[in-house]
Protein 1
Amino acid sequence: MPIIHKIIEVETSEGISIFNITPQIDEFLQDTGIKNGQVLVFSRHTTTALAINENEERLLEDVKVYLRKLAPETDKYLHNDLHLRVVPEDEPMNAHSHLMSMTLSTSEVVPIVEGKLALGTWQSVLFFDLDGPRKRTVFLQISGEY
Amino acid sequence: MPIIHKIIEVETSEGISIFNITPQIDEFLQDTGIKNGQVLVFSRHTTTALAINENEERLLEDVKVYLRKLAPETDKYLHNDLHLRVVPEDEPMNAHSHLMSMTLSTSEVVPIVEGKLALGTWQSVLFFDLDGPRKRTVFLQISGEY
Amino acid sequence: MPIIHKIIEVETSEGISIFNITPQIDEFLQDTGIKNGQVLVFSRHTTTALAINENEERLLEDVKVYLRKLAPETDKYLHNDLHLRVVPEDEPMNAHSHLMSMTLSTSEVVPIVEGKLALGTWQSVLFFDLDGPRKRTVFLQISGEY
């Protein structure tokens, strides 16, 4: 069974930014020619995450508000006491971003049927940077049969 | 390696309703005859979700209260300003349901060992409709060896 | 395609305790000799969970505070009315632990590339006991090619 991977790059924006990466996943799927199988989507940073949901711009703003309510940046966090940790000079104070990441997903597996992602009508694969701006990567792995 | 899928249907109730779909997954597993492998369970709507936990009726009520506390239906959400979006006439105001969905899971992978789901003693695969009542579907994909 | 599993054991501490199980996963991977594929990590209890994030001790304390804020142990939960349920004598009052578990993950899939876990630089696979102390198990399944 072929198992093929690809790393995609995303340049993100300040604070929380959300990207619909379904087109890149779909393009990779077409390149592989796999007809029946799975795509593993894997977020490779501790302050990024995934969700599979509706790519509607106003909803994406609601999600940002929601995440900031759950894990406010201005709360006291032990991880942000940088003087008590051994860290590089440019270490960000981003405990809230880690907490948001753990609330969302790191790995998602999407089925492939007849050469297409078997997503529901309104579903997109969304990539979240929770501590931007940065250059980020997402790992894709497709396995299945031709 | 065989990769076999099945779509199951669930008729849901008003608001949040939760269904133990383990029996349907198990029945599908027995039909395939796979002895060693995985079941991918995939929620196909943006206001449904999955969790693997205890199917205890009082706990399921607690989960509903918990989700409503995290994402109250009565909060202001941009996604609910239907007059600012291009939507069908019967579009629901369901931003809270999307947020609940992203807090739970869209894809879960359950191992298969000796022809059985390798769930822990108290674990069931739970399907959540967060914006019912509707007819919903869940995608199952089994891969492995006989 | 080989599909090989292993169950690892973790002895946990009072309340919430968090363990970096990446070394055990990596050791299992080396034992299998798989070069290209996936590890499925599966939490087998309804009050344990997984997250893939940074194994930094102060952050792990922040996560505990965060989970206790989302689902306080002292809130009223129907699941904790033990006199209304048929339960063993030593049944714990742990509704909050179930809610925390559903907020985190039960299944995570980590890609394997060139014989190594394709985790990002700061990522570790973290196992949470949310209702310790207990003897717990985590299920690992590796599939792929040599």
Note: The radius of gyration of chain C is 17 Å.
Protein 2
Amino acid sequence: MEVEKESCEKVNRFYLWLSCFITIMNKLHTMVIMLFKKVKKIGEDDPRRILHSFKVGLTLTLVCIFYYVTPLFDGFGSSAMWAVLTVAVVMEFTVGGTLCKGVNRTFATLLAGALGLGTHHIAILCGEKGEPILIGIFVFFFSSAATFSRFIPEVKKRYDYGVTIFILTFSLVAVSSYRVEDIIEFSHQRLSTIALGVALCISISIFIFPVWAGGDLHHLTSTNLDKLANFLHGMRDKYFGEDLVDRSYFQSYKSVLNSKATEEVLVNLAKWEPGHSGFGFWHPWKQYLVIGASIRHCACLMDSLATFITTLDKSAPLIGSNPRPKPDSEELYGKIRSACADMSSETAKALSDLANDIKARSAPATARLHVAAAEEAAERMKMALSNGAEGGIVHVATIGSLVGEITKSAKEIVGSVEELAQLAGFKSHEAVNRTMVKPLADGESQHTTITVNE
Amino acid sequence: MEVEKESCEKVNRFYLWLSCFITIMNKLHTMVIMLFKKVKKIGEDDPRRILHSFKVGLTLTLVCIFYYVTPLFDGFGSSAMWAVLTVAVVMEFTVGGTLCKGVNRTFATLLAGALGLGTHHIAILCGEKGEPILIGIFVFFFSSAATFSRFIPEVKKRYDYGVTIFILTFSLVAVSSYRVEDIIEFSHQRLSTIALGVALCISISIFIFPVWAGGDLHHLTSTNLDKLANFLHGMRDKYFGEDLVDRSYFQSYKSVLNSKATEEVLVNLAKWEPGHSGFGFWHPWKQYLVIGASIRHCACLMDSLATFITTLDKSAPLIGSNPRPKPDSEELYGKIRSACADMSSETAKALSDLANDIKARSAPATARLHVAAAEEAAERMKMALSNGAEGGIVHVATIGSLVGEITKSAKEIVGSVEELAQLAGFKSHEAVNRTMVKPLADGESQHTTITVNE
């Protein structure tokens, strides 16, 4: 009996362990599959990423030849290590990125090396004891100044990496000079291996499946225009076409809103790139930032429109659906609606024409015509409204609607801050608040309190 | 005569050179003063930048002691160089940045060192000739895979620097093993000097005037809320207070629109930071992104409102100014206006209360009351409008106004793309365009052509 119970327990325990093990293995299996899918998607989204990975592998393997081929290794000594280091750090996804880092690294090393040697020669004059002290002072002064220069926006944008390398090399050369006998040889070897690594990176970057930041920027701008056009096409076909359920196009402009950071990075990298595939070295990359700002402004307006429509869904009769407006304003209503549809459609055409023009790199011609047609429609709407005698009220009411939307979004902010307060365990000043709440002007504090407790 | 002429010419040339020299010196002088002012402003804007620069200088000077103090130098050999290198690269402005880079560097070096040694031991088995080939294959494989992993968003966010260091160290150790005799000693020395450099950086970062990314993020969120509140306060005091000239508050929300990139960087760094000044290690940093998204949505609505008001200035009677609406709608007009003023004022109070709550880290209490009061006002406006019988029309007209604004912003985009086309010398397809232009539906092509030529 006792033995049977014990073996039963053993079996149970075994099954428990087994089920645990199976659960863990299943979870691991799911995770591996998820990771695999993610990696596959990343590769499929932009196959240039896979090529870039192989390019880095290839460059590193090539640079390793330095170590293998003995005559070359003997020429450079242990400095050959710097070539490996350079390749690992300098190779970037875009040609602009590689050029920026490579040029920065080479020139910063040159400058810092020269300054370091100068420091060494001045320090020698101070004798055995003075030398380390003077070098220390120089290192402190130069590295502090260089670090501060990184806060200057112009330096930060184009030479940030160079300044880091400057600090690094200067300290290294100035300090090594105290120990290394043949400091000139040391500096020269370092510089040549770095220059060699940079040259290799830049060549591979440019000549084997190059990825141009400029091209990406150009493409991004045209894609963003297409996204805006999609929203307006959706408005025309669905919303004003009385299909009020499908709102998938409401998402299309969202990614445009936060495109500024990507654009700025690409512009900074594109400026480093030589002329390529039709873009000259002096291509006006900065203008893309101007276009980008206008595009984001437009996306902001679309966001407001989408928010307003979503609010209407919940609180008021839908445009184009029942309940219809009163019969006496039916005609006015129809006029405004048709004008809106025309505006959306013509503006959408203008934007997608622009996107195509940018893609084809041709001067825009048709876009202005479509915008003019959209303006015609806007004028028509204004006329209809002022004939309808509601002109003045409509302007105030539009402002009112927007302020109302702002109020609603403020409520959202309150909600998310409250969630933060709860998650982070912010203290609640019950007592403090009671003295802080000012009585409401219209004496509706009762109603308000109920809202709080909702 | 000849001599006089010659000397006169000489004097003239001298004056020409002198004026040239003075112009250049003046320009240089202006540039130096400009630079000095800029540097002063950068320092004044955030004095922690100056402190950070001195901290970097101090850390580098400290690490140089390794080179000076002979017993320490003898212990580490030329590997002491890696400590200098580490400090120059790892020291960042925020504690989170330094921790992120330091931890990444240490663990990536450890992992890559171990893998490199493993590779070395496997490669030895293949004999003299096979060794370099096998090492080459390993380097190619690991560096390609590691480079690809940088495209996975989660890796990119937190471990990007670590992957770079992994590639660098792995290549270096695997390849050096072919040459350096005592590879274990070499790896060990490298790892200890790097760890030492990292420890020094982290200590100085944390204990001498620390700059916390988390604190900056917290501060940024509350400042952004204040900016939104300022806009609404401006609306209340100026626009609805009939001061229609001062529009300075129209700028206050602009910087909020593009705050996403900064916020994301700060969140990623804040996650690395230990508990500090009231923020625990598990502080819900992610929630700040949620709040940030709501804040940006609100700023977007403000942008639309500001755009609409600017348009009204140019094209239609100003709200609150002459010409007033027709006498029969005067009362309705006044009601809407007062409701708008109340909404602005209450929402502004809610937002600035939230900003204060975040600053004080107390749970928001009064904000909900103010939002409720603003909602009351919105309800009042809705009632007034529906009593005024224009309800239906107003909704359509608001949508119309927004679509009209989108049209206008599209015109802006067309303008900036045209400028790009001109600057970049895009080809104009006169012929192609002629076939592409579709005839306008309402037969107003004559008028439209005139608009183009404006």
Note: Residues 316-324, 431-454 of chain B have pLDDT under 50 and may be disordered.
Protein 3
Amino acid sequence: MGEVTIKDNEKISNAVIKRLPRYRRYLLELQKKGVDKISSNEFSALIGYTASQIRQDLNNFGGFGQQGYGYNVTSLVNEISGILGLDKAYKMVIVGCGNLGQAIASYTHYYKQGFEVQSIFEINPRLIGMRINDVEVRSYDELVEFVEENKTDIGIICATKANAQEIADKLSFAGVKGIWNFATVDIEVPEFVVLENVHISDSLYALAYHINRNEKKKQLAAEKKAAEAAKTAEE
Amino acid sequence: MGEVTIKDNEKISNAVIKRLPRYRRYLLELQKKGVDKISSNEFSALIGYTASQIRQDLNNFGGFGQQGYGYNVTSLVNEISGILGLDKAYKMVIVGCGNLGQAIASYTHYYKQGFEVQSIFEINPRLIGMRINDVEVRSYDELVEFVEENKTDIGIICATKANAQEIADKLSFAGVKGIWNFATVDIEVPEFVVLENVHISDSLYALAYHINRNEKKKQLAAEKKAAEAAKTAEE
């Protein structure tokens, strides 16, 4: 691995990176079911990408399937996990202890995968001192000092639009490597900090689009049927 | 519009649909700032896609910019909103009143855009009868009847993995047009129901990938610097 992986990673496009967690989820399910190997065609039927897309994506990092054998599920899971950096541990803080902050803190799911929530920071004095899923809620005033002292890797912004940029500034100043932003506003961070914005509504809008398309299709089909019935009646 | 739009929509790829909400967000910000028009180059600098990608995406549905003028911000917002179906109203129910369900219910944000939460459904008797952001929490037993009577368009699953499929079955049976699924499990729905799965962790994994790449780059740069320093010392 080592340098080879680094070189290969350079070429992987952002679009492929966005697909890797999905590949990994399906592979983990296969692993749970005791499946050892899978062909690109079988994988295609399962995950919904074309077999050629799958081969192209996985070839990006040397996950070559063998002709007539397919992919080794466990090797592929390990390789993808390695590329995503999930073989490492990350220390995180959450800023904002509203419902969303609490929901994120409760996703025990993350802990299993090496993402540890160290603390939650909040302005509301009634929440400070509480424990959410065994994680202490601290005063927002202590954020910078805590991140510096505890070498936090990732800051999670679960606050309002109005406060997001200030929080991002504090987190960046204190030395986080990445920010996971749930506030519905685009924020700016220094070059050395990685920013990932989560826009939950985007997928709601995509849902609305597909619902509308379905409705239009149904309507067109109904109109066509009505027109045909009218034509038949005329004849 | 009418048939033209329908025909045009047929051609729009899923990848473009996923980008439209992002275009819309930026255009709404421009509108707020009183900007009337924007060129593809200016838009590119703002949103981070190439100018040619922007022209290609927007040409998909007839959002043609004029040479030497650019795009009319308001027309483009309206056109994108229309394509996404955001000029219509949607009635939604949330199933699961944990932190995530409550967080979604509190996003007043959606209401402004025609997504109305009619009710939240929950098994826990202590929560039933409560009001979250003026929305009543009802017993899960009443879900099917409520959806049928109130002609709910979208069901939002904010429950655990174990219950997600059962909830999806009930929602589909009761007649929703779409399901927005936050449970971290892939569920199956009938053909006439649109499913949008939200995998929040995927973007955390993408963040982990970029953090690692940054760290590797820093490490390589440091090693190179050290090697050069050693070489200089030898000379």
Note: Chain B has a mean pLDDT of 87.
Protein 4
Amino acid sequence: MSDSLLGALAAARIIDLAQPLREGMPCSPTHPGFHLALTRRHGDAARPDGMTGSHELIVFGGHVGTHMDALSHVAVDGRFHGGAPVTVENGRYASHGIDEVAPMVCRGVLVDVPALRGVGRLPAGEPVTAEDLRNADVRPGDVVLIRTGWAQLWHDRDAYLGTDSGVPGLTADGAQHLAAAGVRAVGADTIALEHVPAGSGLASLPVHRILLQDNGINLIEVMNLEPLAQAGAGEFVFVGAPLPIVGATGAPIRPLALVEGPPDRVTPG
Amino acid sequence: MSDSLLGALAAARIIDLAQPLREGMPCSPTHPGFHLALTRRHGDAARPDGMTGSHELIVFGGHVGTHMDALSHVAVDGRFHGGAPVTVENGRYASHGIDEVAPMVCRGVLVDVPALRGVGRLPAGEPVTAEDLRNADVRPGDVVLIRTGWAQLWHDRDAYLGTDSGVPGLTADGAQHLAAAGVRAVGADTIALEHVPAGSGLASLPVHRILLQDNGINLIEVMNLEPLAQAGAGEFVFVGAPLPIVGATGAPIRPLALVEGPPDRVTPG
Amino acid sequence: MSDSLLGALAAARIIDLAQPLREGMPCSPTHPGFHLALTRRHGDAARPDGMTGSHELIVFGGHVGTHMDALSHVAVDGRFHGGAPVTVENGRYASHGIDEVAPMVCRGVLVDVPALRGVGRLPAGEPVTAEDLRNADVRPGDVVLIRTGWAQLWHDRDAYLGTDSGVPGLTADGAQHLAAAGVRAVGADTIALEHVPAGSGLASLPVHRILLQDNGINLIEVMNLEPLAQAGAGEFVFVGAPLPIVGATGAPIRPLALVEGPPDRVTPG
Amino acid sequence: MSDSLLGALAAARIIDLAQPLREGMPCSPTHPGFHLALTRRHGDAARPDGMTGSHELIVFGGHVGTHMDALSHVAVDGRFHGGAPVTVENGRYASHGIDEVAPMVCRGVLVDVPALRGVGRLPAGEPVTAEDLRNADVRPGDVVLIRTGWAQLWHDRDAYLGTDSGVPGLTADGAQHLAAAGVRAVGADTIALEHVPAGSGLASLPVHRILLQDNGINLIEVMNLEPLAQAGAGEFVFVGAPLPIVGATGAPIRPLALVEGPPDRVTPG
């Protein structure tokens, strides 16, 4: 290997964009939440040399925690993006599953909406429109991450979900803008990425339809974009690949941003 | 961002090192296997505009599929690596959990043992010793991946697990060699990474003890190293971060190798 | 078989005392809730003769829905009822598990507290004391069921759980009264059986301690006692056996009451 | 309550017909097996008075362990028993679910086939035909239990499942005979109740079709009929009600037999 790649990366700072997974964390009631129980614990049974092992049972879903939506997550009139009919085989989707998403190592752009508006965090139910995206230098193949500041509410489940108050996020015209720009994926630091007005719930999800079904663009939800914003990194290398769950409609992902700077390792608090 | 990092990466080829996750795939009987069922399917309930959503319920464990072992996976006499006593809080480990592993973007080395020996795949129960590692250019902080060719058996569950016949893998002296070299993590394309002689089962796991407990070096198991070997990449950039499950003894990971070459995207078949 | 037993039973009315199990039903946040997803559906794959099969994946816990608490549910200073030390084997309790509970076919008594007080349902946080039980004809070996009317709130999750407002139920002196009478089990139509004053949550559970740990008396929670009250059956044959889950701290149960009367079959609505 | 019912029952012996539920028990690979992990253990967190609580996370399916098949388990050409079209609502069947099965307290008949043939247990792949049932005193509304002796193999998973060797059980003509007699349910001590010839697997399930779809008769599988046979009880009171899981295709059940005799309590070993 030439030294250029490793050298370039050695000088990069790694920023973790995932929220930690634990029991009781925010999760839409549509999904099963996150459950973990230790099946065996140290001390349950020791080998003659004193060594012990421990492991766990885990229950969750493809849309729990920081995750990517597959194209199979949404259909219109029984058809996926591109017109293929919805087909189930062996209890999962025969096409458009999250396992079809190739690992992403590409240019990333952060749209820091609170910074644009001079606030620490967007209010509940606040729309993020095409106007907010106008000055972002978005190029074909980019992954665009939209910060609302909502990750600050991660430890306040009700506030984070915004069931009554709504959630800030991307509007339909904003989604059209990004689709027209040819982006590869769009992420956000909220439960559903898109604008949820107060009191409206998730009955209508136009951004999911525009990005996933109309344009074949994957979504990434429940990200933690605070460290990236603090690093002031509007442009970075995005690295992310969802768990390759065959035929699933979504899967957890641990996305990273590689930014210029000292090779500090930034980990979740 | 300077163009050097993105430019260097744009010229890299991305090789996926994970096995796909699906029902019935090989899994040690110690662990719960992988189970997925669609909770809602397209067509179950359509919105007025014809849009439908689908999602799933998933059951697995921290040591199912391609995964990383946390330091909390192994203890000796009730102590983790470094001597800290095993402590459980809220039903999970209070320290040494997989969430403490920082994302890895670093130099990677492939030890292609079948290639060294001129075979397509190591036989069942074959040891991989310090002698096999002697000529590998291993440096402090590297992730070292040991190929046995066992990923070729992924679709033959019994053969892959090698319950009776044993599994090829790293021996205690091989593990000592890598620990002395100061590696950051060690991975392999088998169920338990280490040498399992025919008929011995997993009653004794000296390599787990040496790497995890004695030296604080994480393991990565159930990798797919065939595409990396086919690319002839002995040296590469390793990128990997396990799902940050708080206090877990292990977690799924989708590791990638970035190698010189045309920017083909290699995905699991 | 003599005809007496069958003849006697043929004249009995069967009353179902269980709540139906479904996604989203009330469940303490301590427990994982109830999750079901169809693994295969009719139509996924047809046999040549047109026959299709369907089945599901289920996630829940030992204390979800109508269930019985095992003696292993509670310990004091590391000891179960009778003084045996808490011991875990193979990841479950080596003794006092729910599988040790023999099936119950015995006399049952309904204490209909709202009827005693002339109300339709007890208010939130209302205590049910020894005084309320004084006139009940309770005999050694009986199963005593305490109705609060709370099953009427089954479809209002927040009201049923009473997180802020409290839940009506048995007090410590009521539990002592029943223990002194030598009952075999005590059931109720609430989430925790015992009195939960407004704002106190489940921090203190004296009735669980008195019945399970001090006296070895099993509890049955989340029952539906409305049909039994409507039948005016103060005395009946109780039939119930929890799922025999080895070493579990609780298990679902579908208890029945057999009462005099026409052989109507009463099923859950 | 008149004393007759309670008196008659007090003189009855209770025989448990369920197999215990534990990790690693026999289960068809079609289903997820049984998984339990303690979420909290005694000692994890003590209240000031020394009291501790423990509970678990459970994963299984509607056809794991001793269970009853609902009419929704089988369809033919998209229709359930009676001709109703298969309909899914909220991710489960809108009709014919296991929750529609009324609790059963009725006459039970044991057909002890090994006893009829003078053997301890039927061989693998042995058919149980209408001829075997000819002398059984079966009446309308009965629950008929067919013993093969296969419960003796419960602790030998491979032998019990009989994947290669086949499993003894009811043939199509035997099922027709029982349907013509007007039985309410049919149970057996094997994984699939019906005759599975060596090497044929579960590709064809005529008995499931005849009983569930053609005749609306529920099946009970994975019973333990050894204690009932040892008691020599050919006729008894059957008591059984599956967990009322709304819209499920099957559910666990703990069936009991009440037989004449001393009031011994027989529990699983």
Note: Chain C has seven helices and 18 strands.
